Amino acid sequence: MESTTREKRIRWIWGICLVLMWGCALLLFIKTNGKLSIEELLRYKPENPWLAALAMLGLYLLKSVDFLMHTGVLCAISAILFPLPAAFAVNLIGLAIISAVPYFIGKNLGAPILALIRNRYPKLRRLESLHARGVFFFAVLLRCVGVPVFVVGVYFGARKDDFAQYMAGSVLGMLPMMIPFTLLGESAADFTSPVFLAAIVTRVVVLVGSILLYRHMLKKESASREK
User: How far apart are CA 165 and CA 80, in angstroms?
Assistant: First the structure.
């Protein structure tokens, strides 16, 4: 009985948060006449920092259902709108949102969606046998090698994998993307600053590293199959 009541309370609170974030995102969409460019978003920043944070989380909510704006762009915008610690906090919550929403969508869609995902995303299909190493490990891996955010969430939800392990691995796997983009936004006004240059180098290293990791895991998996 207590667990049921707790679940209902969590759903109720989560529902209110979603309504508030959708409302802020809709308000931004209306004010920018549907043109959610970086310039328009910065122009219509709410004066109240809490409303600005809700608006950013609303955009992350849109992104969670595969909204076209890149996650890294949202991370950079947060750093332009807020002081760096607050930007990191907003972006961490944003990463949690874009991880959680697709998971529950996949959980509701169930097993039939898995076949479609496997057919459309060969990168995931080639690595899928590594799922046996654990939900946390596989979530980190898929985020690092660049499988689309929405697809990864739907995949884990459809498999009904452990939510806590998936969330921890998903957010951790996106940190190497989030941190450089946040630093880029924070130092966007000064292209010669050490922070900006370090963020650029870090982003390049992460991109190259993800490609090498993907190739390494494929070779390792192929070798294990041949034994």
Answer: 31
| String of DSSP letters for the chain | -HHHHHHHHHHHHHHHHHHHHHHHHHHHHHHTTT---HHHHHHT--SSHHHHHHHHHHHHHHHHTT-SS-HHHHHHHHHHHS-HHHHHHHHHHHHHHHHHHHHHHHHHH-THHHHHHHHH-HHHHHHGGGGGG-HHHHHHHHHHTT--HHHHHHHHHHTT--HHHHHHHHHHHHHHHHHHHHHHHHTTT-TTSHHHHHHHHHHHHHHHHHHHHHHHHHHHHHHHHH-
Please give the full DSSP string across 54-114, using - where no structure is assigned: HHHHHHHHHHHTT-SS-HHHHHHHHHHHS-HHHHHHHHHHHHHHHHHHHHHHHHHH-THHH
pTM assigned to the model: 0.74
Taking alpha carbons only, the member of 31, 7, 8, 27 closest to residue 19 is 27
* pLDDT at residue number 196: 54
Of residues 117, 85, 124, the one with CA closest to residue 217: 124
Both structure tokens of 118: 């496997």
45-49, 68-72, 155-159, 186-190: range with lowest mean pLDDT: 186-190
Which tokens go with 210? 């993800």
Residue 53 contacts residue 90 (beta carbons within 8 Å): yes
d(CA 200, CA 213) in angstroms, rounded, equals 20
